[in-house]
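Board notes (copied after class):
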Amino acid sequence: MASSTNKRRKPMSDINVVPYIDVMLVLLIIFMVTAPMLQQGVEVTLPEASAKPLPPDKLEPIVVSVDAKGRYYLNIGKAPNKPSDLSAIQKTVSTVLKHKPTTPVVVKGDHKTDYGKVVQAMVALQTAGAEKVGLMTEPAKHANSVR
């Protein structure tokens, strides 16, 4: 019997994955809770238009928003939810376009805003170096309706 107690056991090659599953489930819950909070931007009611959507680009577009009160917002930078003046927006956009000249540039104007404010934003973006400035709209509810 002495020989049976001297035998060595084989090492186990199993990995206990239960702690990894627990961590994964906690991370999943955290991401599910924080994902809706990541939606940033300014609340703007876009005008409707029956135009074809542009094909998606690989680069995230620069979006200048004009709210109903005529304040300007830029989606990039330190504070995308704080109003900014056109000169600061122009400097930031100019810097981005120097490094990435193919970045799409879009103006998102509220349907109640003064048209002159939207035009001023477009002029500032063109002065900053944007060759093409697009206008963002909502898809029309009725295909043949024009407002």
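Comment from the instructor: The mean pLDDT is 80. The CA atoms of residues 59 and 102 lie 8 Å apart.
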